[in-house]
Design a protein that fits this description.
The chain is built from 4 helices and no strands. By secondary structure, the protein is mainly α. The chain has one domain: Helix Hairpins (Orthogonal Bundle). The radius of gyration is 42 Å and the shape is rod-shaped.
Length: 178
C-alpha cells in the first residue's frame, strides 16, 4: 500500500513539475490544436482530390490517421499532386506531434529522476545531521554525568575529611589524657 502511495506522490510531483513548464505545455497545446484539424482537413482534401484511391471520407481519414501515427501500412497512397502535398503536411504535423509526445514523456522521466535524487540527497543530508545531533546529545549527557560524579566525589572527600578530623581529634585525646 505504501508503494502505491509513493508512486502516486511521484506521479503528482512530476505532474506538478510539468504544470510549471510553460513552454512544454504551450507546445503540447499548439501541436494538439494543429494536429486535429490537419488530420480532418487532410482526410477531406484527400477524399476530394484522390477520389480513385479514397472512395469514402472514412478511407481518407484512415490514411491520415495512419500517417499521423507513422504506421503507414502502404495499402493506399496519394496519386495526385494535391494529395501528395496534403500527405506531406500530415507527415510533418505527425513528426511535430510525436516530438512533443516524446518530449513530454522524457520530461516526466527526467523530472521523476530529479525528484528521486533530491529526496535521496535530502535523506543523506538528514542522516548526516543526525549523527551530529546524536554526538551533541551524547556530549551533553556525559557532561551531566561528569558533573554528578564530581559532586559525589566532593561529598565523599568531605566525608573523608570529616572522619579524618574526628579520628585525629580522638587520637589526640588518647595521647593526651588531660
Amino acid at each position: 500500500m505504501s508503494s502505491i502511495r509513493h508512486r502516486y506522490k511521484q506521479f503528482r510531483g512530476g505532474y506538478q513539475l510539468f504544470q510549471t513548464d510553460r513552454p512544454l505545455r504551450y507546445a503540447t497545446r499548439m501541436i494538439v490544436i494543429l494536429t486535429i484539424p490537419v488530420v480532418l482537413l487532410g482526410a477531406l482534401v484527400m477524399r476530394l482530390f484522390d477520389r480513385n484511391e479514397y472512395n469514402t471520407f472514412g478511407e481518407a481519414l484512415w490514411f491520415t490517421l495512419q500517417t499521423v501515427t507513422t504506421v503507414g501500412y502502404g495499402d493506399t497512397t496519394p496519386t495526385s499532386a494535391a494529395g501528395k502535398v496534403v500527405a506531406s503536411v500530415v507527415m510533418l504535423t505527425a513528426t511535430g506531434f510525436l516530438t512533443i509526445v516524446t518530449a513530454r514523456v522524457t520530461t516526466r522521466f527526467i523530472q521523476a529522476e530529479r525528484i528521486r535524487i533530491e529526496r535521496s540527497n535530502a535523506a543523506a543530508m538528514s542522516s548526516e545531521a543526525d549523527p551530529l545531533a546524536q554526538l551533541v546529545s551524547t556530549l551533553s549527557t556525559l557532561a551531566e554525568r561528569l558533573d554528578q560524579i564530581e559532586l559525589t566525589l566532593a561529598e565523599r572527600l568531605d566525608q573523608i575529611d570529616t572522619k579524618l578530623a574526628a579520628s585525629d581529634l580522638a587520637a589526640e585525646k588518647f595521647r593526651d589524657p588531660s
